[in-house]
Amino acid sequence: MSGHSKWATTKHQKGAKDKARSKLFAKLIRQVEVAAREGGSDINANATLRTMFQKARDASVPMETIERAIKRGTGELEGVRYEAINYEGYAPGGVALIVECLTDNRNRTSAEVRTVFSRNGGSMAEPGAVAWQFERKGVIAIPDSISEDDAMALSLELEAEDIVLEQNSWVITCAAADFNRIRDALVQRGIKYESADLAMVSSNQTEVAEEAMARKVLHVIDLLEENDDVQNVWSNLVIPDELLAAITA
Fold it and tell me: CB within 8 A of 61, min separation 6: which ones?
């Protein structure tokens, strides 16, 4: 892992998405609404809603806005009905991508996602062609101001799967079922997390060490994330630290 950034690459992608704050809010609100529709409005009983609620709060989405989204999801307020659909494909360099969408028009979203792939050196894949190598995991980044010994002890205490140093963060990986427990435990210990996601993590990374190719891959990911229907883009991309620093400078 040393010298190669996986989570830093993901943060680069999120940084690009965060530039459009209103678009980010809209995506988070849609996720809250769908979680409430599928599992009910009780955040203590609905783990998915609890996760999406916290993501929205971490992004400073107003509480009133979140509450309206929950009510739309449960039918207390009128709203659009969204369908969850995933697309799989390859970016330039054979980098595997999973594109998670929430849409009210499957045909429109499918056409738009396909266009991004085909016009930028990528290709769509059949269902399952990419997904087999990904697994849903909790991924939480905390400051690297914590010593290595303390970080390792914390990981063992919280029963996380792994903790690694990536650029300026300790990155904790855990089972999806343990995500809320570990995130809450960090907060209780006064450890402020930098980011926390239920991410699709690949067991088969693809390293891209050439700058032009890395930029092409990140461009495809950025274009996909600009789509209002696209909620997340997960990849198996690994970029060497020095190259990522040059790209993001």
Answer: 25, 28, 29
